[in-house]
Amino acid sequence: MSVISIYKCLCDEQRLRILNLLREGPLCVCHLMEILEADQVKISKQLRYMKDLGVVEGERHAQWMIYRLADEGHPLLTENLKCLQDCAGESLALAEDLRKRRAVTAHARRTNPVCAEALEA
User: Fold this and answer.
1) Measured distance CA(40)–CA(30) in Å, rounded
2) Where are the domains of the chain?
3) What CATH number is given for 3-120 in this structure?
4) Among 24, 53, 94, 105, which is least packed by CB within 10 angstroms?
């Protein structure tokens, strides 16, 4: 992962919002769609881009595709994610995304134990 590819990844608002959500733990594509109010094609395109860069990892659990931040991130990416965490409190969109994330994952835990189990894996 090069410095240029990291900053290319970070220069898109939707990718930043996805990274902000994944900092809190893994999420299913369907949850990202709901939180970000975006269609599956747009979310999957961004996830594929970040997966190709090695920023995120995806794993299939039954019919769900679960994404998480890559285990061994580049030190520059790690530092930028820490900065993103600090900015999340100041950005209304990032803070609202995290609020929605809590609601969506709580609902998944109550209504869909298989999906919830995948989120914990």
Assistant:
1) 7
2) 3-120
3) 1.10.10.10
4) 24
